[in-house]
């Protein structure tokens, strides 16, 4: 005999009704914040004055380190665990601090796009990539091998996830688009077996550009979603959901949490994504689907402490991305004019093959003056090749004294690496050929130092070529 709810049907209903009130209050706060500017959203998210009072008045969102929530009674427990009311229950599934981070990111990604979005935060950027892709690769009962179409110029970890985990281990047909700017190639590789299109904009490490509106059109014609990794741009410089993308992925570890105190990731999706594959709830609210089902079972949860670190930096995202993009533009021009440099990859340079598409799609939120004066900003990551092959690139890297040598980017401190021997080492020579990562490429993330000091450090190092 099913005893569920016996003697407590009224109690359960009362909790469900209470949950509806809680959800409505958050909806009102979301609607109120949608009217605010980017910086205001970044600072407050949906942590309202009422929410602060409910947290002993703490003006900053508290880090709820407790793994679990205490419930008032068994009806409350049942309603919460049945996903019948807002609750957090257990930190692997949800947690107040993670909630505030996710809500803020969702509002920022939807900013000015006319779309509504929700988000789920993850333990790392790679967990976010995995959680954004895996739900589309489920068995459809036809026995046909699923395919995905992926921009080959991508982060090394993402390349390995697709090639090793999905293609080699699980038999997914991974089709690489070697030149992501070539829209016709995306169309050529997409067919009836395709579950999704995936690309980075701009890409790590070669700052390749993706024409999101064009590729989203191809995806939607095929009835599948476009997933965009926008880690390098951040929502301060580009809002892919407004350009037609269905799902946005972030390594929150990078520019969003630029102080470098936490690893974190996020999946942000607009409501009503295009996907002929998968259940209705996946289409209606993909991020909620991921949070309540695959995340619950796979378990790549974010630590609440790391969520607080990320939130702390997120508040100042727009101003930082503006200032650091301007520094990076200056450094890119300096490198382009340097005789030891072969080529600079930076979409802000008019000479860059992706410049025109980037200039159409990368806009600083609220403009240069914060009042909507349109301004292109191209981020603080770039890459350049030096004359003399890898030995010369190593001499340059070894000659840096201010810029740090590390496999990291998006930091307050300037950082450089040689991708072929670091981030893109494990994919091997053949993989690097597909992804176009030459041995003499140096990736440079420009930080918050004065750009003249970064240039002086680069000049000294380049003198060793
Ligand atoms: C770093 C990075 C990732 C992976 O993020 P982690 O937080 O390191 O797991 C994914 N995509 C891009 C573009 C990245 O730069």
Verbal overview:
The protein folds into three domains: 8-81, no CATH class; 96-314, Type I PLP-dependent aspartate aminotransferase-like (Major domain) (Aspartate Aminotransferase, domain 2), CATH 3.40.640.10; 317-462, Aspartate Aminotransferase, domain 1 (Alpha-Beta Complex), CATH 3.90.1150. It is of the alpha/beta class. It is 41% helix and 13% strand. Helix 15 packs parallel to helix 19. The strands form two sheets. It has a seven-stranded mixed β-sheet, with helices on both faces. A five-stranded mixed β-sheet has the order 8-9-12-11-10. The protein is globular and about 80 Å long. The model has no long low-confidence stretch (mean pLDDT 96). The protein binds pyridoxal-5'-phosphate (PLP). The site of pyridoxal-5'-phosphate has 17 residues, from helix 6 and helix 7.
Short synopsis of the structure:
Helix content is 41%, strand content 13%.
Give the topology, please:
Blueprint: H1 9-34, H2 38-44, H3 49-54, H4 74-81, H5 96-110, E1 117-122, H6 125-133, E2 147-151, H7 156-170, E3 173-177, H8 183-189, E4 194-200, H9 212-221, E5 226-229, H10 234-237, E6 247-251, E7 265-270, H11 280-284, H12 286-292, H13 294-298, H14 304-314, H15 317-336, E8 341-345, H16 355-361, E9 381-386, H17 389-398, E10 404-405, E11 415-417, H18 428-435, E12 441-445, H19 451-462
Parallel strand pairs: 2-3, 2-4, 4-5, 5-6, 10-11
Antiparallel strand pairs: 1-7, 6-7, 8-9, 9-12, 11-12
Helix pairs in contact: 1-4, 2-5, 5-14, 15-19
The structure holds pyridoxal-5'-phosphate.
């Amino acid at each position: 005999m099913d005893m569920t709810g016996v003697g407590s049907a009224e109690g359960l209903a009362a909790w469900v009704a209470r949950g509806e009130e809680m959800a409505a209050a958050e909806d009102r706060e979301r609607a109120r914040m949608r009217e605010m500017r980017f910086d205001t959203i970044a600072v407050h998210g949906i942590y309202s004055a009422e929410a602060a009072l409910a947290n002993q008045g703490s003006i900053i969102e508290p880090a709820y380190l407790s793994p679990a929530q205490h419930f008032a009674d068994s009806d409350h427990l049942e309603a919460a665990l049945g996903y019948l009311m807002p609750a957090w229950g257990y930190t692997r599934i949800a947690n107040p601090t993670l909630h505030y981070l996710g809500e803020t990111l969702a509002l920022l990604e939807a900013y000015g796009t006319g779309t509504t979005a929700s988000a789920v935060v993850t333990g790392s950027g790679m967990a976010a990539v995995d959680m954004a892709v895996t739900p589309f690769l489920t068995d459809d009962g036809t026995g046909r091998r699923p395919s995905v179409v992926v921009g080959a110029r991508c982060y090394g970890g993402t390349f390995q996830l697709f090639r090793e985990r999905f293609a080699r281990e699980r038999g997914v047909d991974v089709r690489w688009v070697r030149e992501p700017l070539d829209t016709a190639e995306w169309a050529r590789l997409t067919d009836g077996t395709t579950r999704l299109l995936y690309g980075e904009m701009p890409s790590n490490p070669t700052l390749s550009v993706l024409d999101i509106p064009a590729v989203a059109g191809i995806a939607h014609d095929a009835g599948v979603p476009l997933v965009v990794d926008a880690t390098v741009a951040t929502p301060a410089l580009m809002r892919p959901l407004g350009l037609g993308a269905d799902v946005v992925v972030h390594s929150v570890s990078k520019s969003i949490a630029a102080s470098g105190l936490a690893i974190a990731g996020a999946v942000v999706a607009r409501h009503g994504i295009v996907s002929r594959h998968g259940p209705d709830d996946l289409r209606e609210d993909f991020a909620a689907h991921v949070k309540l089902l695959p995340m619950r079972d796979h378990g790549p949860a974010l630590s609440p402490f790391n969520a607080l670190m990320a939130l702390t930096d997120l508040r100042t995202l727009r101003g930082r991305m503006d200032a650091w993009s301007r520094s990076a533009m200056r450094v890119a021009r300096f490198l382009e004019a340097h005789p030891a440099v072969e080529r600079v990859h930076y979409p802000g340079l008019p000479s860059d093959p992706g410049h025109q598409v980037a200039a159409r799609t990368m806009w600083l939120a609220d403009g240069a003056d914060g009042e909507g004066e349109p301004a292109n900003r191209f981020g603080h990551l770039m890459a350049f090749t030096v004359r003399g092959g890898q030995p010369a690139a190593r001499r340059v890297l070894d000659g840096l004294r201010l810029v740090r040598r590390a496999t990291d980017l998006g930091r307050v401190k300037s950082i450089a690496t040689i991708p072929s021997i670091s981030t893109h080492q494990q994919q091997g020579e053949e993989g690097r050929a597909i992804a176009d990562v030459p041995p003499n490429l140096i990736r440079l993330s420009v930080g918050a130092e004065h750009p003249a000091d970064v240039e002086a450090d680069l000049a000294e190092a380049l003198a060793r070529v």
